[in-house]
Amino acid sequence: MMENLAIGFDLFFSFENFIAIALGVCVGVLVGSIPGLTATMAVALALPFTFNLDPVTGILLLVGVYKGGVYGGSVTAILIRAPGTPAAACTLLDGYPLARKGQAGKALTMALYASCIADFISNLALIFLASLIAGLALAFGPPEYFWLICFSLTVVISISGNSLTKGVISGLLGILISTIGLDLVYGTQRFTFDVFNLMGGVSYIPLLIGLFALPEVIDFYVKKASPIAVKGADRSRVTLSEFKKSFLSIIRGSFIGVILGTIPGAGATAAAFLSYGEARRTSKTPETFGKGEVEGVAAAESGNNGVAGATLIPLLSLGIPGDVVTAVILGAFMLQGLTPGPLMFQENISLIYAIFIGIMLSSVVLFVSGKFAIRYFSKIADIPRHILLPIVLMFCVFGSYAVQNQMFDVGVMLAFGLLGYFMMRINMAAAPFLMGFILGPLFEDNLRRSYLIAEDITIFFRSPICWIFIAFTVISLFIGIRREIRMTRARKASAEEATAS
Amino acid sequence: MTVTRRTLMGVAGAAAMLALAPSVQANDYPEKRVTIIVPYSAGGATDVLARKVAEGLSEELDETVTVENRPGAGATLGTTQAAKARPDGYTLFMGQVSSHGIAPAVYKNLQYEPLEDFEPIMHLITIPNVMVVNKESPYESVEGFLEGAQSETMRFGSSGTGSSIHLSGEMFKARTGVDMTHVPYKGSGEAVPALLSGDVDVMFDNLPSAMPHIQSGDLRPLAVTSLERSEQLPDVPTLDETGIEDLKDFSAQSWFGLLAPAGTDEEVVETLSASLGKVVSSEDFAEFADTRGATIVGSNPAEFTDFIETELDNWKTVVDEAGVTVE
Hints:
The structure holds two protein chains of two kinds.
Chain A: H1 2-12, H2 15-32, H3 39-46, H4 55-80, H5 92-100, H6 104-139, H7 142-153, H8 164-178, E1 181-182, E2 189-190, H9 204-223, H10 240-262, H11 268-282, H12 294-310, H13 312-318, H14 324-335, H15 342-347, H16 349-377, H17 385-404, H18 407-425, H19 431-454, H20 464-500
Helix pairs in contact in A: 1-16, 2-3, 2-4, 2-16, 3-4, 3-14, 4-5, 4-6, 4-12, 4-14, 4-16, 5-6, 5-12, 6-10, 6-12, 6-13, 6-16, 7-19, 7-20, 8-19, 9-17, 9-18, 10-11, 10-12, 11-12, 17-18
Chain B: H1 5-28, E1 34-38, H2 45-61, E2 65-69, H3 76-83, E3 91-96, H4 97-106, E4 118-134, H5 142-151, E5 154-158, H6 164-176, E6 180-184, H7 188-196, E7 202-206, H8 207-216, E8 219-224, E9 253-261, H9 266-280, H10 283-291, E10 295-296, H11 301-322
Parallel strand pairs in B: 1-2, 1-3, 5-6, 5-7
Antiparallel strand pairs in B: 3-9, 4-7, 4-8, 4-9, 4-10
């Protein structure tokens, strides 16, 4: 190993590689922070620039863009409630309320700390445990996946806001919308009403922007003034006690991210929400979540960044891309004439070590560039709303259009903006809707695949992993519902006390 | 109003200019960035090829050629958008077996006509599919697999309903009459792990995505689906060579080619065809194709048109035999 490491160092240490990582991370942060431009899109846009680069330099550029993009997604989620990526939608639950309290700097800094720590842990897992945990990707068949999704869906309890009933309705609505498009097994059209653009389903970026960012804009113009104006002159910092309080959540979130990153298709969004749900469940003050709890930002960001390094595990060790971004990176490897997989560890081990060294460095670069960026990004929160919101609206339109260069997606964004505004007015949380929308198809597909494989219900109980997630689901449901009942009782009691006095 | 000689000369001159306009345009082509629409997400086989072609064309045409990914609805979304694009030579399309072979046979209400709406330029490469089983599988040959299928229902994985991987399996099923359940996944990235872990028994995967696992010994190739053996797997027979009567002339391959929207100037098509010819005959492209087990075709527009017609007929037969329908 030491000899390979030494060759890897030799391969890595070049001016071009440092520049590639630094440039990649910076471009990623910038692109990721623009609503509608996702980390995937940033990596795809950077791909042609790798054609004429050395394999190590090219791959590091893409990895840098990816990591920067994942963090960048949280910036606008916190500042203007417009998540740059679906995973960042979880960050806004507490990040945006913090920004509205005039603590955008605190939210952004905590997001950065959590992202970098999770990224670092994820990288370590990639380097030292790749071959060991690569087996996880194969141990997860449709029934295991099905129960994982069931467990993830229990998070709806944690993100339902004040009413569990409304949260569940919101989640079910999300699942319903996710069924639009072509059916996986038979390819039949569902709820497309012969609209051609709906055949591929509802695009999640316009939906995301519409659901979260647009209601804020509509609300501002309907009420002519925002009820809670963002306070200017943000000097907030993350205190040591806040960091200590959040540390356990960050570590837990990182591991959730690593595990979900290793399973192809599980994704950063589920990791962020699961990490958030766990942080709230174990918190002594769960009622502060969703109202500007800095631990909530830490949990969400550690969850989605924990995925970033880990998705490279199935790619490098098995040749299986864990998500769309790693599929693009796989493409870059192929363009360089390299085929990721078990043989790569035998044939190109020094190259892999060089990439590993660069990936470790990317966490440091992310921290430095993030620190620098926060200073300027946090000023966005100080811009008066009557100037900021028209710009947000422009971003909403641009971001939705940019996904596929079609006006139809702008219409989708507007439609879900109106739905989001309606939900806001009746105090129905939008996050469960997103969870339902993203997890719904995974739930259905894996349920149906399991049946196709076995045509027998016992397949759902075939392995210890199934039983572990069944137990997690039951426990999570039980604790969550009990806590909600207690909190509802407490709210009623305090309301009665207030009326009596 | 009097018509002066000068006016007549002016009108004649303008008419001549107008008549000559297309050829002037073609001579100057390209004057701005050219885009290749890929109907899949970035990173897949079609995207990787399109980017390689874009790189080569950029050099040949001395103009930037970029790739635009428009995925969705089994490649039909991006294909429809390409069909409706302005036929000015600045929007091209990376067609493949799905868009110009399978989809027209599978989808009832397709929004494009594969030949009427497109101007074929060049059939670039062909990639065989390979019938693979897990290394733990008891089956060492196609005959053994068919024997096993007499006593148990086999499950075959695919990268999605209507993909060439799915329909190769359906074609095998229809020809041999074996009982196989189709288990669709979202892309090869999800389907290959299912085969490796034994959730499905067999797959008719594209050679490039199966190759690393064949080389590592995790997957066992039983046969390739092309009429000729693959250079990358010289010891693996074709389905046709297995001697099984039902599988005679079995041919199901993935192919890729560049097209333009119908109505694109003939000279522009010729310019593109000539430039592409240089791209595919380069050493760099040969190496690119070789690492993927792909065969370079490099046909002219007329040959490519004939090829698409044959493919449309072939897949229609397969789809009709297999009874695969999409509403």
